[in-house]
Amino acid sequence: MSFSPLIRQLIDALRGLPGVGPKTAQRMALNLLERDREAGRHLAHALESAMEGVGYCRRCRTLSETEICDMCDDPRRDDGLLCVLQSPADVWAVEMAGSFRGRYFVLKGHLSPIDGLGPEEIGIPALLERVEGSAVAEVILATNPTVEGEATAHYIAGLLKPLGIKVSRIAHGVPLGGELEFIDGGTLAHALAGRTAIG
Amino acid sequence: MSFSPLIRQLIDALRGLPGVGPKTAQRMALNLLERDREAGRHLAHALESAMEGVGYCRRCRTLSETEICDMCDDPRRDDGLLCVLQSPADVWAVEMAGSFRGRYFVLKGHLSPIDGLGPEEIGIPALLERVEGSAVAEVILATNPTVEGEATAHYIAGLLKPLGIKVSRIAHGVPLGGELEFIDGGTLAHALAGRTAIG
């Protein structure tokens, strides 16, 4: 025995972070305790505030601490253009790219029948509701360029076409098999600009 | 703009952890918010408890949430043997090794006059106080095998010798499981000089 209970608990809790193993967690705990307790307290407070205060935007379903997020609320954005993505991280990535000025809609991942994730589970009915009777003239499908992401895009395209809405897919400037979240802004901007009609 | 203030604060606070850059912090924040808020709350609580509740053992100066740590308090440990280390992390490492059953004393790093860290700053007077008039018969100097660690060990040895206490230094040699081919010359020279009879 060498860790006291509070230190042991802290190390275990740090291992709850993605990519943090036992050695890293131990190093983090020690660093905070020995060198920077203020950073530790600050992190505790930031975690608590975020876990309690951050919910989802009622309109686009991205992470937001207000009922309607800043991007949905911004009157300068183009209501005619709706970009559909798989996760809030993807919204962040597209925003960082800086070239898109339309609206967003965030799915809960991609279709995956084998995991029990059908259209209902990932929020496709809510997307149709969002689009119908709205000013949206074009839906850009920006799901990941993976097999599942493509399948999800095609499924959604099939539903939107009959509604007379233009449906496009981000261009193949994005490398196949990559994840949108990790792609650089320039590539993403190209992919948005070079979008092609689908279906 | 794409992160709301609470998310931005959380990402910034996570960057206070050692080895966590902006991308990793973003991934951690998203993972907690999207997949595991319970882990986030748990971490907040563990951090708060540890930052407030963990202090230093009055006797050995390792991190402890009690005035005297479990290792100093354990009556089954050998009072005659005192192992001197540079940090609480080193205590943990020696404890994990499992073979040492004496007591510990933790310095605040090593001597570094250039940084204004003299004997007083790293706790050498407290070490002498701890040893004098105690049951300690042998002090094992287990500071790091670096130039500064060696210098610190030699300095302490010079102070303890006149007190009639046996002073030893942890052995230098090849680490178990290592390959000779990749071990530096200094270590090899030490390993050869410190060879022991076999069979």
UniProtKB/TrEMBL annotation, chains A, B:
GO molecular function per UniProt: DNA binding; zinc ion binding
InterPro entries: DNA_Rcmb_RecR (IPR000093), Rcmb_RecR (IPR023627), Rcmb_RecR_Znf (IPR015967), TOPRIM_dom (IPR006171), TOPRIM_RecR (IPR034137)
SMART domains on file: TOPRIM
PROSITE patterns: TOPRIM
Pfam family, one: RecR_HhH
Domain of life (superkingdom): Bacteria
Keyword Repeat: no
Positions in coiled-coil regions: none
UniProt keywords, alphabetically: DNA damage, DNA recombination, DNA repair, Metal-binding, Zinc, Zinc-finger
Domain Toprim: 80-175
BP GO annotations: DNA recombination; DNA repair
UniProt zinc finger (C4-type) residues: 57-72
Function field: May play a role in DNA repair. It seems to be involved in an RecBC-independent recombinational process of DNA repair. It may act with RecF and RecO.
Record family assignment: Belongs to the RecR family.
Entry-linked NCBIfam families: recR (TIGR00615)
PANTHER family: RECOMBINATION PROTEIN RECR (PTHR30446:SF0)
Record-given protein name: Recombination protein RecR
